[in-house]
Amino acid sequence: MRLHRGFVLGLLLLFGADCIAVTIGIEGSSEFGDARKVTRRLLDEWARKTGNQIVYLSKPNSYPAAFGQFLIDWAAHTADIDVYSIDTTWQAAAAPHAIDLTKYFSPEELRAYFPQVIKNNTVDGKLVSVPTSVDVGLLYYRTDLLKKYGFADPPETWDELTKMARTIQVGERAAGDADFYGYLWQGKDEGVLVNALEWIFSYGGGTIIEPNGRVSINNPGAIDALNGAREWLGSISPTDTLTYAEEDCRNIFESGRSAFMRNWPYVYVLADKPDSRVRGKFSITVLPKGRDSGTHAGALGGWSLMVSKYSKHPDVAADLVKYFSSAEVEKAVALELSGMPSRPALYQDEDILSKYPWFAKLPAIFDQAVARPSDVLGAKYNRLAYLVSYQIDRFLRHDETAEETVHQIEDGAKKLMRDGE
Hints:
five-stranded mixed beta sheet; globular; single chain; alpha/beta; D-Maltodextrin-Binding Protein, domain 2; 19 helices
């Protein structure tokens, strides 16, 4: 039977042009381990269910390179990419280029996510993106080596970590492993800022710029934190740490050549694979406090999906966002990749806890997470990230004192806060 052209046009007017199969471009997702395979499979499932097509572009693994690529896309008003996977700190920069997702998510639906993340992703009343995962900095530690060297529990403070890491490093090197190190952390690009924020906050030194806009970096807690960290470089941490990102640390830890490591939750499932030398020999806990009176805190991270306002098919793109942020998909990602769901209820899911009992620890750790000052700076945050990373890199290389470093960061941060006033 041949459909009358007027009838077809009527259907389009009634249901909208997006009822016809379209092609949706999505950019950005983790490509580590099995993430690529799982992501592609889930995208294919959505495409089969909806009859639409997917064009998937991987973002660069480098944090600044990925952000730079997105800025180019947004400046060009490209319609080729409908959905972007964006970091927690990119919300303000992305806001002018995103549609408001409150059109597609009811208040009841949004209450299913961690409220602090929804707040983070809302800029001037616009819901820029919806979280698909959350992250928090964790301490990975070798349970077998702690037992071997007589330590009953992981370290509570950074001083304890330093002493334990040094003891284990000396012992393992004496046993023949000349390349063994006590503690691994990230010293490259955004990684050094994230680690420094965790150190400083744990010593009571604040968040560099406080939520009220006060620049707080120049204080004794921040100075103590930085001085403590500089003792690690070339001692319990490799000199090359300043070139290390997350994957560099993971690879060394998995090879069995470290006692402790700071990293994100995704590492767990990779380090526990059959070919890992530390399988069944490690666990996770909260990062140490600066001192007995300090605070346990890991940096807040995670990824969210936004729909570009230059998309030709925003309704279909929003449907993809709803799918990827659904309880079913987040549960699958948790089970297969040990990704932290953005929905609190999933941390009580029996299937997830049966496979990863340590997930029960994560909500409490996440509640103590410290956010980078991206909300207060908005689109200027990345200028602060460069400033902090540059100055702390100079400090760790012994080019400046801690006092000089916090003073330089303070001056630069105050200038950023004045710009645009």
